[in-house]
Each structure stands twice: as structure tokens, then as C-alpha cells.
Amino acid sequence: QARAGIISTVEVLKVMEAFVNEPNYTVWSDLSCNLGILSTLLSHTDFYEEIQVFVKDVFSPIGERLGWDPKPGEGHLDALLRGLVLGKLGKAGHKATLEEARRRFKEHVEGKHLLSADLRSPVYVTILKHGDSATLDTMLKLHKQADMQEEKNRIERVLGTISQPELIQKVLTFALSEEVRPQDTVSVIGGVAGGSKQGRKAAWKFVRDNWEELYNRYQGGFLISRLIKV
């Protein structure tokens, strides 16, 4: 109804606040998705920072309850929920989450304590969103060293979270490099397009500038339509 302009978005946000004690992963996944769409729409307005504060307020209590480490008797959905919540808080700039993500990422890179598979994406997203050129270089190094394609894909999907314009360009150039399989290039460009307001503009320009190469690469396949959609 809010998307159709029938009710105010404020009413939706009030309903979302009521879910603060919700334990169910499916519900949080839906809340996260809708807040993500709202955040994207508001990225072109003065309300963007305020919606990040709202995200932190709504997701903080469940984040504190879940913590960073698995608890005895937890199920698969609890692990998924932890990854979802920590990623949301980290991307929004929640101070404690950002600090812990940086600490765990440092230990992961140094080989002292490897991140579990379900925590890698949220940690990578958090440190990239608030990272610099050294952070991006470290991520690209991890990509090169990764033995499993699953880990390479995991990194490729989140590289676009980086914020600085010159680093966004570096990620886009990387997307068309030999380091990335042709079928995975779209994921990298899509990650940039969904990462930030600057990323959307840069990705659109990049696709137009490299249209011939991209079109020749994918011809009329589903990947070219997916690229246009993102």
C-alpha cells in the first residue's frame, strides 16, 4: 500500500518497530528486504542517514540477543538470522558491530581464527562498506587465494559495497578481468549497482561504456537481461 502511494511510509515504519522482539528468520528476512528497498529509494534524499539510524534501532536488540557465536541447540535458521542481522547492522554503521567485524576480519586474514562460512558475507560487507583502498586490496587478495569457487563468488557479490568513487571503478574494472569467470561478471556489476547511490550511477555508465563487449559476451542469454535488470 505504501509503495502504491495509498498510505504513508511512516505507517510502515511504525509497524516494523513492533517486530523488535520477533525471533523468526523469515519475518526478519522480509523486514530486511523491505528496508533495503526503502533505503535505496531514500539514498537520493536527505533522509538516508535517518533510515540508517532506524535500521540500527530496529536490528540492535535482536543482534545483541543472537551475539556473534553459535549457541548450543541452535538450528540452521538461527545461523541464517545471525548473518542477516549482523550484515544489516554492520552496513548501517552500528559501532559495536563494525568494531567486532574488523577485529574478526583481521584474525581471519592473519590465519589466527578463520571466519565460519555463515559469518563471512556479513563481515565482508561491513568492512568493505566502511573500508578504504587497503581493505579492497585485502579482499581482492583473498579472492585470488581462495581455493573454492564458492568463496570467490561470496567475495565477488560484496565487493560493490565499497563506497569511494575511485574504488568503485576499480571493482568494475575487476568485473571484466580474467580473475572473474564470465558468468560471474554480472554479480560483481550488480553488487556495485546495489551497493550505493554512487555505485548505481557508476555501474550504469560502465555498462553503457562497455556495452559492445558485454553484449558480445552474453549475446541474447539470460545474463544480459539480468544485468539490465540490476
UniProtKB/TrEMBL annotation:
<dbReference type="GO" id="GO:0042277">
    <property type="term" value="F:peptide binding"/>
</dbReference>
<keyword id="KW-0645">Protease</keyword>
<feature type="domain" description="ERAP1-like C-terminal">
    <location>
        <begin position="2"/>
        <end position="229"/>
    </location>
</feature>
<dbReference type="GO" id="GO:0005737">
    <property type="term" value="C:cytoplasm"/>
</dbReference>
<keyword id="KW-0378">Hydrolase</keyword>
<dbReference type="Pfam" id="PF11838">
    <property type="entry name" value="ERAP1_C"/>
</dbReference>
<dbReference type="GO" id="GO:0070006">
    <property type="term" value="F:metalloaminopeptidase activity"/>
</dbReference>
<dbReference type="InterPro" id="IPR024571">
    <property type="entry name" value="ERAP1-like_C_dom"/>
</dbReference>
<keyword id="KW-0031">Aminopeptidase</keyword>
<dbReference type="GO" id="GO:0008270">
    <property type="term" value="F:zinc ion binding"/>
</dbReference>
<dbReference type="GO" id="GO:0016020">
    <property type="term" value="C:membrane"/>
</dbReference>
<dbReference type="InterPro" id="IPR050344">
    <property type="entry name" value="Peptidase_M1_aminopeptidases"/>
</dbReference>
<comment type="similarity">
    <text>Belongs to the peptidase M1 family.</text>
</comment>
<protein>
    <submittedName>
        <fullName>PSA aminopeptidase</fullName>
    </submittedName>
</protein>
<dbReference type="GO" id="GO:0043171">
    <property type="term" value="P:peptide catabolic process"/>
</dbReference>
<dbReference type="GO" id="GO:0006508">
    <property type="term" value="P:proteolysis"/>
</dbReference>
<dbReference type="GO" id="GO:0005615">
    <property type="term" value="C:extracellular space"/>
</dbReference>
